[in-house]
Amino acid sequence: MGGNGTLVTEFVLKGITERPELQVPLFLVFFSIYIITMLGNLGLMLLIWKDPHLHTPMYYFLGSLAFADACTSSSVTPRMLVNSLDNGKTISLFECMLQYYFFGSSATTECFLLVMMAYDRYVAICNPLLYLMVMTNRRCTRMISVSFLIGFLHPLIHVGLLFRLTFCKSNVIDHFYCEILPLYTISCTDPSLNALVVLIFAGCIQAITFMSIIISYIRVLLVIMRKKSEKGKSKAFSTCGAHLFSVSLFYGTLFFMYVCSGTGPDKYQDKMYSLFYTIIIPLLNPFIYSLRNKEVLGALRKVINK
User: What is the structure's pLDDT at 263?
Assistant: First the structure.
């Protein structure tokens, strides 16, 4: 702990739980989840890269999403695993800022990638004859590049504003990673400006991207409902179902993390929302998009049978 007048340069992450008897079991659980997450996401990227049949805009976006998920998990889980076996659980201010930057970058990138994926499905279903003209490889590359560029730039604003804060009271962060909102609660400097900027940017990005996805899928739904063929309807719903489920998990969790976070007395609940977003969603996404996808499963069978 830093005493009055002493600037804090490192922090203690309290983690998910302070019960010592749970540290080793939690380490084993989250280590297993991390390995499966990386195998799932990197494996999906490898399949898309190796199989020429998957060299289409939809799978380029899916491969980029898998990369963003791998980055999200890697920005949080390895440090959490180290801390679960380390009694000190300390992290320097620089490491803390770095961890938040990479987490914020991958989260923002994922928001915009989900919009690009919704737009891709909109063009494929609503304008199938123009799909190859609209979703060219060049345009697809630009859309992915813009998503990552916004992702890289957005957290720089919040990390830059952290330099205006000083920490001289407590150095204990009641979280399992350097989430920015718990960091504000231990600042000696008034963090109102920082919190306002987070609220504005996070709110605008989530609202704009979510509404863009909703508008795309409303138009897709209207087109699907006009289809006379039941087979056509079923195929259209199956191509959109996985994406809609992933979007629901992603934005539902983000809403509770940044809109409802801290509004109630249960801080443990806030940790669970963060845990679900940073660890569970990256684990689930490759399976959500793959298990009912005949093209991905076919590519996987080819690799296994070689």
Answer: 47
Identity (one letter) of the amino acid at 152?
A: F
Q: How many residues does the chain have?
A: 306
Return d(Cα 305, Cα 148) in angstroms, integer: 35
Q: What is the CA radius of gyration of the chain?
A: 21
Residue 169: predicted pLDDT: 72
17: left (phi over 0), alpha (psi -120 to 50) or beta: beta
Cα–Cα dist 183/220, whole Å: 42
Regions of the chain short of the pLDDT cut 70: 1-6, 87-88, 228-233, 235-236, 257-268
The CA distance from 131 to 154, in Å, is 31
Number of C-alpha atoms within 13 angstroms, CB side, residue 208? 11
Q: Quick one: pLDDT at residue 86?
A: 73
Cα(243)–Cα(245) distance, integer angstroms: 5
Residues 42-55 as b/e (b if ≥16 CB within 10 A, e otherwise) read eebbebbeebeebe
